[in-house]
Every structure is written in structure tokens, then in C-alpha cells.
């Protein structure tokens, strides 16, 4: 059983910053890719940023230059530093991790989501 606990969401004014965290715990051998997704009301869930176990990153065009994804492998935690926030960033943010749970068995797990609201 794997648990992902997210924190760091909240209400912020446009131009402000927030830092999201997502910590994984439970039974697994290792964590491969770690990602952040978001879903705004009435819209599909979209990938915001991802980071590999080796530290390679990729970002949605809409957040490039404003958001930074990072990870602490010792803590099984992924972070999303969000700067210069815009009202369009308002959404529920979810972390997603790819876990190795067996010799050649992998699973994906989702966090519970954390609300980010940016006021204009």
C-alpha cells in the first residue's frame, strides 16, 4: 500500500508564490518519475511538470519560467515551486508517481489533490 500526502496549497494573490509538496510512503522499492498535474473546473486534468529519477525535467508551456519541479529522493518527496502565479493557475493540483513495487512491476499512484486559488 502506497500513500501520497500533498501539502502547500492555498489562496494567493496574482504575482505571488506557493510551494507544493508531495511525500510518498508505504511499500515500494523505488520511485521513478514524479509529476504534478492540475485540473481546473470544467477542464481536463493536464500535466504541469515532471521529473525523472535522474533529475531531468519537463514543463507545460504555460508554466515554463515560472514553476520549478524538484525532488528529494531521501525523503521520497517531490516539490513544485510556483512563482508569478496567475489566476489561470487556479486548479486542484495532484502529484503522481511511478513506483517500482516488484522486480519488474511498476505502479502509478495519485495524491489526494490540493487546491490552489489565485485571485486577481
Supply database-style keywords.
120 residues; mainly beta; 7-stranded mixed β-sheet; 4-stranded antiparallel β-sheet; 11 strands; elongated
Can you walk me through this structure?
Strands 2, 4, 5, 6, 9, 10 and 11 form a 7-stranded mixed β-sheet that branches. The chain contains no helices and 11 strands. It starts with a strand and ends with a strand. The chain has strands at residues 2-7, 10-13, 18-26, 30-39, 46-51, 57-59, 67-72, 77-82, 91-100, 106-110, 114-119. Strand 4 and strand 5 form a beta hairpin. By secondary structure, it is mainly beta.
The number of helices is: 0
Series of H and E elements: EEEEEEEEEEE
Assign an overall shape.
Answer: elongated
The overall pLDDT, averaged over residues, is 96
Structural class: mainly beta
Rg estimate, integer Å: 14 Å
First-residue to last-residue Cα separation: 40 Å
Low-confidence stretches: none
Share of helical residues: under 10%
